[in-house]
Design a protein that fits this description.
Number of strands: 7
Strand order of the largest sheet: 2-3-4-5-6
Shape: elongated
Largest sheet: 5 strands, mixed
Strand content: 25-35%
Structural class: alpha+beta
Number of domains: 1
Helix content: 10-25%
Length: 176
């Protein structure tokens, strides 16, 4: 991906052992990914790259805040995120022919670099919960916009139960 060269690791020149990298991620990073749910953030990703003879172990440590929109009240807020992930990189003659595995990246021996931009993008997104809502306030109250909560908590007026919908009343005549 153009503009993300700092995430390309030229592993051929690295000695066997552990190598460390750090990346400060902001909204500019996510502009390189089409339809990214994240627009703004301040995240630090620490990478521990362990080079072995025949494969690599890459550990990602994600920590920071992401600007998100609350799924309940739609008011933006900063959500703290953190996570630890491990990616294994193995060599293959034809990496595209192998079955995709979540924690294993297959690369060709001819490939001189490992691009970490896509895994970093995915791991930051994985740190977000399925449902993003404001955290509760220290006093225990909901953190969402109180005006929106009033509307959401408003109960609909109940219809009288003895009144039958005319569309269903016609079906009662079918019994006869």
């Amino acid at each position: 991906m153009k503009g993300l060269r700092e995430f390309e690791i030229p592993y051929i020149g690295l000695k066997i052992g552990i190598h460390r990298f750090e990346y400060d991620i902001d909204g500019q990073f996510f502009r390189h990914f089409e339809d990214s749910p994240i627009k703004e953030c301040k995240v630090r990703v620490k990478v521990e790259f362990e080079k072995k003879e025949t494969f690599f172990i890459i550990k990602f440590f994600v920590d920071g805040t992401v600007s998100v929109e609350c799924d309940r009240c739609l008011v933006p807020f900063d959500k703290e995120i953190f996570g630890d992930y491990t990616l294994y990189v193995k060599f293959a003659e034809d990496p595209n022919a192998l079955a995709h595995e979540d924690e294993v990246l297959f690369i060709s021996r001819d490939e001189p670099i490992i691009d970490l931009a896509q895994p970093v993008y995915e791991y930051i997104n994985l740190c977000l919960p399925m449902q993003v809502v404001h955290p509760k306030k220290p006093n225990g109250e909901e953190g969402c916009d109180p005006e929106v909560l009033k509307i959401l908590n408003k109960k609909p007026e109940a219809k009288p139960t003895d009144e039958i919908d005319p569309r269903w009343a016609v079906l009662k005549n079918l019994k006869n």
